[in-house]
């Protein structure tokens, strides 16, 4: 697994037979950790979750699963419930079982991929994504002027308005479960530092007390840090910037059906252009627990700003 020190995110492909073989060991795991921490994407074609006959209706084009507001169905350990599913859906239990199964299978894959380092990642939300991205209409109960924020067909690094990350990173595993063999199509972009440098001068510092007040008024579930403030601004400025969207370095990637890919989505610039039926598991890890913490967006931004971003 060789790569240049910086630049465009690369797709590192591991054959599933290698990944599942007895020979997969410490050297491969270290290389996988290095690739992910360098903001590459690790793809394992042929690695997919186990499905049962109870899952079949979830993949029928005639089945409407989502509530028409959300694009995904989410199992959230923080809110302790499933959201996004149509009210009174007869498939609630089947979706829940699929999400619980996906969570435990991804936890096992992560420990296999990264060895002991994989145990430092904590599983958070699990999503099922049954809606075709290409034909998705307006998402969420948001004003038209804010809709761009939820438009994941635009290049971005992940940052959440209500869920500040602080010292933690966002790591995600995706599996393309498309039953008709259709790929999930992404764009991946330039490296995180170039993205940050493009906008950093335009982002004001938070006002004194601003971040605590947002928490008090429940704009955020818990206190946003200066780091989160910058990440959210980068996310919004990038999505609104047509020049960046159209002309910054980017490559098209097709993730085949029955494949699984792993990446830090807070530093890999990505956009999801097309695809239908995927599962996704979010993990969090403190940047301090990385093998090379200096590769984190937290430390990159602190270096560029020259101050701690607490
Ligand atoms: C995203 O994280 O922006 C969307 C990815 C996807 O659904 O494939
Ligand atoms: Fe994203």
Per-chain topology:
Layout: E1 11-13, H1 16-19, H2 26-37, E2 41-45, E3 73-76, E4 81-83, H3 92-114, E5 122-129, E6 168-176, E7 184-189, H4 192-199, H5 210-216, H6 226-240, H7 242-247, E8 250-255, E9 259-264, E10 270-274, E11 278-286, H8 297-305
Parallel strand pairs: 1-2
Antiparallel strand pairs: 2-9, 3-4, 3-5, 5-11, 6-9, 6-11, 7-8, 7-10
Bound molecules: succinic acid (SIN) and fe (iii) ion.
Strand content: 15-25%
Radius of gyration (Å): 19 Å
Strand tally is 11
**What spatial form do the alpha-carbon principal axes imply?**
globular
**Sheet having the most strands:** 8 strands, mixed
Spans with pLDDT under 50 lasting ≥5 residues? 1-5
Helix-strand pattern, N to C?
EHHEEEHEEEHHHHEEEEH
* Spatial separation of the terminal alpha carbons: 35 Å
State the helical fraction: 25-40%
Structural class: alpha+beta
What quaternary form is this?
Answer: single chain
Strand order of the largest sheet: 1-2-9-6-11-5-3-4
The helix count comes to: 8
What are the bound molecules?
Answer: succinic acid, fe (iii) ion
């Amino acid at each position: 697994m060789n790569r240049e020190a910086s630049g465009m995110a690369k797709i590192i492909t591991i054959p599933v037979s290698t990944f599942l073989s007895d020979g997969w060991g410490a050297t491969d795991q270290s290389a996988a950790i290095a690739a992910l921490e360098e903001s590459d994407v690790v793809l394992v074609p042929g690695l997919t979750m186990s499905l049962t006959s109870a899952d079949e209706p979830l993949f029928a084009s005639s089945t409407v699963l989502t509530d028409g507001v959300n694009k995904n169905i989410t199992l959230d350990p923080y809110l302790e419930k499933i959201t996004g599913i149509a009210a009174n859906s007869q498939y609630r239990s089947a979706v829940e079982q699929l999400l619980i199964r996906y969570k435990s299978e991804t936890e096992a894959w992560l420990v296999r991929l990264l060895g002991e380092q994989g145990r430092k990642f904590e599983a958070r939300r699990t999503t099922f994504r049954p809606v075709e991205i290409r034909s998705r209409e307006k998402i969420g109960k948001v004003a038209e002027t804010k809709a761009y924020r939820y438009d994941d067909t635009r290049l971005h690094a992940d940052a959440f308005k209500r869920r500040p990350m602080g010292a933690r990173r966002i790591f995600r595993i995706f599996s393309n479960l498309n039953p008709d063999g259709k790929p999930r199509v992404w764009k991946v972009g330039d490296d995180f530092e170039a993205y940050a440098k493009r906008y950093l001068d335009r982002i004001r510092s938070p006002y004194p007390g601003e971040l605590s007040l947002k928490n008090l008024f429940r704009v955020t579930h818990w206190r946003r840090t200066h780091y989160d403030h910058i990440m959210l601004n980068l996310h919004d400025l990038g999505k609104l910037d047509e020049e960046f969207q159209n002309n910054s370095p980017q490559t098209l990637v097709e993730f085949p059906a029955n494949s699984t890919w792993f990446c830090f989505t807070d530093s890999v610039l990505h956009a999801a252009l097309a695809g239908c039926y995927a599962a996704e598991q979010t993990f969090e890890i403190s940047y301090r627990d990385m093998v090379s913490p200096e590769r984190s967006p937290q430390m990159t931004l602190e270096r560029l700003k020259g101050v701690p971003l607490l």
